[in-house]
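Lecture 7 notes: from sequence to structure.

We start with a single chain of 377 residues. Read the sequence below before looking at the structure.
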Amino acid sequence: MTSMDTEPIRHPEILRQAVKLTLGVWFFTSILFVMPIIVATGHLPPLAVGITLLCIAFGIFMSLPLYWTAARLNEAPSWLKVTGVFAAVCVCAFLFSLFDAVNGGHIIQLFMAEHHIPPDVLNRTVSNFISFSWLYGLLGTIYVILHTHAAMRDRELQLAEARSLAQTAQLTALRLQLNPHFLFNTLNAISSLIVTGRNKQGEAMLSKLCDFLRTALTAETNGTNSVGEELETLQTYLEIEAIRFGDRLSVEFAAGEEVVDLPVPSFILQPLVENAVKYAVAPTSQPVIVRVGARREGGELILSVSDNGRSAASAASGKPTGTGVGLDNIRRRLEVLYARKARLETIAFDDGFTAVIRLPIAERATLGSWLGLVAAA
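Now the structure, written as tokens:
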């Protein structure tokens, strides 16, 4: 069975609307049928009522094949749709006119009481057809509009679903670019600790890594965390890095009670913290402070990651600090999730580097609060 065969079934709401409009059109038409009699005689004979109801019932019955034609040709090319519906209009109007003509031309007499009524069936049919083809033309136009509107709505829903699937796939790809980078660095650090005989530190780092990966693997690709949960995940990550760098890495978290339950994209801050460790902490032997903050400014949630070791790292390595793939991935995730309502800003200072994410504030998520407002790794 083709899609056109099942069109009325797939869209029962169109059928309901078509029935209502059809009954409305024929009710209005019945008034037009009897108005000349009422105006001319001042009353409505029972015979006129019976004739009118009989013809209206047949007219409604003849509307069914017209609706079926419009539904069947809904997905057809425009020229075929117009031609098919026009032909159906002509056929339905002709059969309706012939029905009245065979029965004596009563409708044409009621509707055109002051005009000469042809005595033969053929001429009465032609007179009726000229008078009533507009009626079926109106109904055919209504049916085509209903089905065309439904088809456009279906395409919009399909497009929205396709966009959603594409966004999910894109977010998955971005997340897959981030996690392996961190995993490689951490495993390499664990290996170095074991090789150098620092087995306890290696075991501690491995335990923290398991906790971090458990969170990462259970999080939905396009899901959200509360700000508090995001900071807890970052704290686990930075505890891993603290084992690796020791006193060279200090961490400060700051988030007010008014923002800890607000939703944010999962792991949105992770690449910023990775960059701070990679470009500020790793290249230098000097102590570096990494600050992670969250605050509210009007209708925006401000997330920030800053460090005070970027300039020292540049001087030690003789190379400019880089941004890696992390910042670009964040911008792409924000574009996918928020369009132009969110943005990432980066600022380089003489004594460090700051990255700021601005998000529109959504409704408060029903998630547990994060109580550690200030922590150090």
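The radius of gyration is 37 Å. Keep this in mind for problem set 3.
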